[in-house]
Write a structure and sequence with these properties.
Eight copies of one chain form a homooctamer. Chain A contains eight helices and nine strands. Chain A is α/β, with parallel strands linked by helices and 214 residues long. The complex binds adenosine monophosphate (AMP) (4 copies) and magnesium ion (MG) (8 copies).
Chain lengths: 214, 214, 214, 214, 214, 214, 214, 214
Amino acid sequence: QRRGVPEAIFAEGKSIPQVVALAETALETTGRALLTRVSDPQFAALEDYVAETTPDATIHRHSGAVRVVTADYEPPSLEATVGIATGGTVDEAVADEAEAVCLDAGATVDRVDDVGVAALSRTLDQLDRFRDADVMIVAAGREGALPTVVAGLVDTPVIGVPVSSGYGYGGDGEAALAGMLQSCTVLSVVNVDAGFVAGAQATLIAQAIATARD
Amino acid sequence: QRRGVPEAIFAEGKSIPQVVALAETALETTGRALLTRVSDPQFAALEDYVAETTPDATIHRHSGAVRVVTADYEPPSLEATVGIATGGTVDEAVADEAEAVCLDAGATVDRVDDVGVAALSRTLDQLDRFRDADVMIVAAGREGALPTVVAGLVDTPVIGVPVSSGYGYGGDGEAALAGMLQSCTVLSVVNVDAGFVAGAQATLIAQAIATARD
Amino acid sequence: QRRGVPEAIFAEGKSIPQVVALAETALETTGRALLTRVSDPQFAALEDYVAETTPDATIHRHSGAVRVVTADYEPPSLEATVGIATGGTVDEAVADEAEAVCLDAGATVDRVDDVGVAALSRTLDQLDRFRDADVMIVAAGREGALPTVVAGLVDTPVIGVPVSSGYGYGGDGEAALAGMLQSCTVLSVVNVDAGFVAGAQATLIAQAIATARD
Amino acid sequence: QRRGVPEAIFAEGKSIPQVVALAETALETTGRALLTRVSDPQFAALEDYVAETTPDATIHRHSGAVRVVTADYEPPSLEATVGIATGGTVDEAVADEAEAVCLDAGATVDRVDDVGVAALSRTLDQLDRFRDADVMIVAAGREGALPTVVAGLVDTPVIGVPVSSGYGYGGDGEAALAGMLQSCTVLSVVNVDAGFVAGAQATLIAQAIATARD
Amino acid sequence: QRRGVPEAIFAEGKSIPQVVALAETALETTGRALLTRVSDPQFAALEDYVAETTPDATIHRHSGAVRVVTADYEPPSLEATVGIATGGTVDEAVADEAEAVCLDAGATVDRVDDVGVAALSRTLDQLDRFRDADVMIVAAGREGALPTVVAGLVDTPVIGVPVSSGYGYGGDGEAALAGMLQSCTVLSVVNVDAGFVAGAQATLIAQAIATARD
Amino acid sequence: QRRGVPEAIFAEGKSIPQVVALAETALETTGRALLTRVSDPQFAALEDYVAETTPDATIHRHSGAVRVVTADYEPPSLEATVGIATGGTVDEAVADEAEAVCLDAGATVDRVDDVGVAALSRTLDQLDRFRDADVMIVAAGREGALPTVVAGLVDTPVIGVPVSSGYGYGGDGEAALAGMLQSCTVLSVVNVDAGFVAGAQATLIAQAIATARD
Amino acid sequence: QRRGVPEAIFAEGKSIPQVVALAETALETTGRALLTRVSDPQFAALEDYVAETTPDATIHRHSGAVRVVTADYEPPSLEATVGIATGGTVDEAVADEAEAVCLDAGATVDRVDDVGVAALSRTLDQLDRFRDADVMIVAAGREGALPTVVAGLVDTPVIGVPVSSGYGYGGDGEAALAGMLQSCTVLSVVNVDAGFVAGAQATLIAQAIATARD
Amino acid sequence: QRRGVPEAIFAEGKSIPQVVALAETALETTGRALLTRVSDPQFAALEDYVAETTPDATIHRHSGAVRVVTADYEPPSLEATVGIATGGTVDEAVADEAEAVCLDAGATVDRVDDVGVAALSRTLDQLDRFRDADVMIVAAGREGALPTVVAGLVDTPVIGVPVSSGYGYGGDGEAALAGMLQSCTVLSVVNVDAGFVAGAQATLIAQAIATARD
Ligand SMILES: Nc1ncnc2c1ncn2[C@@H]1O[C@H](COP(=O)(O)O)[C@@H](O)[C@H]1O
Ligand SMILES: Nc1ncnc2c1ncn2[C@@H]1O[C@H](COP(=O)(O)O)[C@@H](O)[C@H]1O
Ligand SMILES: Nc1ncnc2c1ncn2[C@@H]1O[C@H](COP(=O)(O)O)[C@@H](O)[C@H]1O
Ligand SMILES: Nc1ncnc2c1ncn2[C@@H]1O[C@H](COP(=O)(O)O)[C@@H](O)[C@H]1O
Ligand SMILES: [Mg+2]
Ligand SMILES: [Mg+2]
Ligand SMILES: [Mg+2]
Ligand SMILES: [Mg+2]
Ligand SMILES: [Mg+2]
Ligand SMILES: [Mg+2]
Ligand SMILES: [Mg+2]
Ligand SMILES: [Mg+2]
């Protein structure tokens, strides 16, 4: 039986009517809709649409990612925990996108922000939470060293997400991506800012673990 | 309790005495040694060393990766299956390195070679095996489309490994890496030719699943 | 006797009066005008100009490409079919530009949208149409695997068009271009988003085939 | 009925026994073998093998490409002409590879060497031959301007092949590839040094034309 | 005695008051001002300033380059001709900048536009003018082949100027720069869009020739 | 009074007689010679030369860097400590080159090897030594995170040296350089493998501190 | 006792309320705030906030960098001089950022502007000031040769800061960064436009020297 | 009357018999031969060939460039001086190639070596010779600042030649090329190591000046 990755609507570059129409179809056929890279005007239109048509639905916003759930939607339940860590403020929107995907799939998310390597003791304080997660997503920009430091300290599989911060040479996430691919610990990696892919891959791993738990 | 990734010796660029000495230490302290990127002369020296010092030890060669196991070594057992698929002949050495890591950790490996997208029906014939694996490693060079095609057809988490084949623009695995990071399905990725990292990450995921099975 | 590629006006970066003047010249000397990369304000000015000066002319819009045909223009006829396939929504504007060139030359166009490799069965369903085309244009962004998959299944010559979609490493069509140049099947390629060039090259091939048919 | 691209063996990076074994299989199953990127020792071994096992077979060498044809092989016949032009001496090996593929498929090849743009009158002298071809392959290194100049003067579809010559910035075929993709005339392009792909794509186009001629 | 390159003010990124103040100083100390990369609002402010303060001065606009000359300014005289050729419309603004520098130094400029290699006969028609120039500037975008074609046909020293046109791989002048640096004829080159540098270098060469003429 | 950076001979790419002659001049004029990137045959020739001509001179080898000191040479004394740390075995040769420069200038060197971030506790154990140094050089390859981690924990100025290790994307020191330039702590950086420059810059800083101590 | 680098708030990409809140916290906890990359609207809001809440505080603006100091703040005192030199007008904002950091730490700053290598005598005139500084920051764009020229003439340690000026190949600071990393003199380098990092590193060096002076 | 650039044979990548045959043709038809990038074995074969066939011919070697002149060859005379300057030892072979071309055309060459910017006073000492040249070629590797410094001090037109020295980021001449294209003085540039092109362009300029002198 396939469960797969939650379907998501990539809103960037689409018109407001297109986004609303796609959300409408998702809600009508599945009782829920997951959208990523939603702009403020797109979000406002979504809110209006939901308020008018299904006022008892719930809207969750995770930076650019948006989950809409109708009142009678039965969310999947996934008995596994995805740990998510970020280095600094700029990494949070990307981690939010990953979190939205995991929550949408029913996983428990344990989120730890602002533990970048420039203040290493804050990172070390969270090791137990990192070790308790079934799989971890670690998002970091600039030099992107956080996933390497975390993966060196835990047995949990770590997915690194480079974030498009930083200026000059290696900016916009390029140094972070290169650093994660060169990591002297064990990481697998997704593209720069690809919170959705990290969340979806973590979900697939969490589903495999939850199935094994049954 | 941490189990972690099997320790490996990166032989490339090391002298023959260095490689033998590192293998000696590993064998004496753990009863086994795992080496990657072992050249032919390094391998010959390893064989000689083992024949002289521990003649009842076993040597397994997986292209450049080498596992040495003493007679009384009790290998770990890992109740989980790692699927490994390759597109063509050039991808096999990289997959062999990944396989060596998984086997060293005690995982079951289900290996499928020569299912590149230029002959799509061969790929489609193997879907059931891909679906039965707990986690998959898919190695591909040139345009690197195979992990995308596989991940689109199965729920198994897929780790893509770009292989340094191809000439001209995007050669040496660059197009494959870029293509896997841009995949329109869900993949996480390791660096070009990083069979070791793919095998180690698959091992961590397999261990999490096996633990859940208990 | 040379027939060549239909002349086209590249509107991007030109002022509205320049674009209108170039269209005017084309209409007066040849009875038709083909423009690419036409913006909304440029299009509005073209419509106004045509409405005022040659109200019985017809305007066809294909995303940014625009064909204007006067009432007494005798379109060329080209007894050959150009197949055009796209992977997803973002590829359609580029394919529209290619289609405009082929139609302008009198070719029959058989267009198939939304057959990206993430949903492979939809691709496989269209194989007969791909095989019946005399030459194919396949547009794809992100990892750009669709032209490879199509070319592996048909004898029709395939021209790959990378589309500037995707973010992060290999984004903006770079991975797609690299992947098509590295394809393990047989493709020739045009630049990223070069729908015009793909359409023009397909037209030259279609003309050679149509001439041979005579 | 599919005819497709002639099967070829990519010899680069394979051992001599592997190359001979692959050629053996090809000869036994189809009566012919086409190999590309064959080194001198690989070629010598092929000659020896053929002399011993099938002494009445014929070996054709086109730089690195090699065609072996048994005495009773019935070559395909393809009623169409592929024109091939090169800019200078360094481009000839790549053109030879393309030529081998076309000849193997039974096409007529009309080859013109040493017509680089630095001596433009030599290029202009050959226009009639370029116009008479059904499809053209133009190979050029350094700045790679020859395909652009040719395509501006003829209606024949032109496939540009960048050649890995030149030193410094844009060397190794990079400037040639970029220049062909940016051409202000109409070209489709293959990767740097990809004579095989150019020959195979020209073959597919020639087959479509020849079929139309029937 | 040094004559050197005419001093110019690089207006891009400067505020309107800064630009006007710099022009004022130049006019007061030398009786003339040369500015490059002047925007429309900067130009309007310059016109206003001149109209108010030195109404009998003359303003010459060459795309973004602007020369202001007071009534009693005695322009230098330079007995030499700089030939300037462009491939297409997009190259003209860059050539205009080069032309402004040459004219400001008193050189004669012989300008030929729209002789790109896609319509080679127009290029060949101008050979005598190219041969009569003392030094040539040839500006071209996209694949940038024009300077190569011209330099192959004349003994005049040719300075190539790549122009930032074209999209996709090698766009924004990159292919043109690479192609000119790889030229199989003899060229020296300036940076992409560096009309000023080309004009200044041509001026230095023209001055050396004019001095020799004395 | 200028003291400056010790003069060094860059041996790479020079012939053995050239290297010996340059060392001879240095020894004769200053009583010492410092050479970098010395190959094994170059070193053997240096040893022979010294043994023959100045048998009481001392030769110090630091990987590729070589210091020769005659018996009556009075070494400079520099009352300051340069700390040097490396991540792993591959970083040691680059650190050796830096160390040779510092020692040649008379500085005290406090060297700590093998404290890469994959085994963070070993790094943390050395903090007191790092804090006691007057200036630090930290060499690291692969993802190059060590200088960032160290600089986040100490007030000592840290100079990062990327090392050309690692394969695939970001290999050969590219990721390490980019990561150090993007560091979220405070670092200044030298080029990949530029141990000499790091040592010389540290020497200049140490000299400034030692002068202040007087 | 650690003194470290002054804490700074990176304002770019933050909302006005976020910036004001971060400044508020800094002011309340330390009596001062240092911000970098502050936009005009962010600055206006900061001014309003300070005027309202702590009207006797002082605001210093150094291009995008802003220092706010309350009336009773006791600034640190640092007995050392940081020399700062720039090549041209475009380099000044980056140097201003560096200067703000040094001043905030209590260092004396000796600033020299407009001494670019195109007018070498102006550079040479300032050598005594460069030699008197304890550490130097040299900011330069375009080809970035100034730090090399300065470091060749003085014993002061020089930190090079590439500035994102210039267009075409090597523009946006890329040539300057590469040139400083390739310098044939002794430099350490920070990223393009990283005035903050240069200032902070110079501060750490100045602090070490000042401590030694005690 | 065209005089043009001396014909040269590019020996790199050609076999010894090919090189000898091309030299033979040149000697027989023109009485001289100019070859570039000649390897040691190629040079030995040339010497043997000349000794046997035309023992009274003269061979001049300029690093990889070789001029052969028969006894009765009447060299062209060119009344103009080409100045050539280099920064350091590694630049000399490239300058030698340029010099060979200029001498072959009959120009006077004024050569100044080892005046790199790290020892600026040596550069400044040569200004009069630089000013007396009719045109200058300046070759420099690493950061490539020498042509910029020279061009800022003289009115002579300067052609910059980047040299493929340096390691790490911007190595192999990339920083030098970028720096010369970004120069804040007036330069035109040839490709990395393109001594031949620099010499040929300087020759064309020298010919124009010499003609004007008549
Ligand atoms: N083929 C490989 N690719 C990447 N990392 C490897 C590889 N083989 C071993 N390693 C890692 O490198 C470490 C050994 O490096 P070394 O100390 O140089 O032998 C091991 O602990 C592994 O984490
Ligand atoms: N979208 C396009 N991409 C590339 N080339 C184009 C495009 N549209 C038109 N062209 C070519 O550009 C020429 C017109 O360029 P222009 O003179 O700038 O209008 C046409 O003759 C075509 O060869
Ligand atoms: N202009 C700058 N460039 C680089 N790093 C900076 C800059 N300004 C502040 N920082 C660093 O970034 C940190 C603040 O980042 P944030 O938390 O995003 O405000 C500070 O502690 C500094 O270390
Ligand atoms: N070192 C060189 N760099 C660039 N072009 C050269 C060089 N030497 C010769 N050439 C050019 O290459 C042509 C000869 O090329 P080939 O036919 O390969 O010998 C000559 O006519 C020159 O225009
Ligand atoms: Mg781990
Ligand atoms: Mg899947
Ligand atoms: Mg096919
Ligand atoms: Mg054509
Ligand atoms: Mg010429
Ligand atoms: Mg620190
Ligand atoms: Mg210095
Ligand atoms: Mg000058």
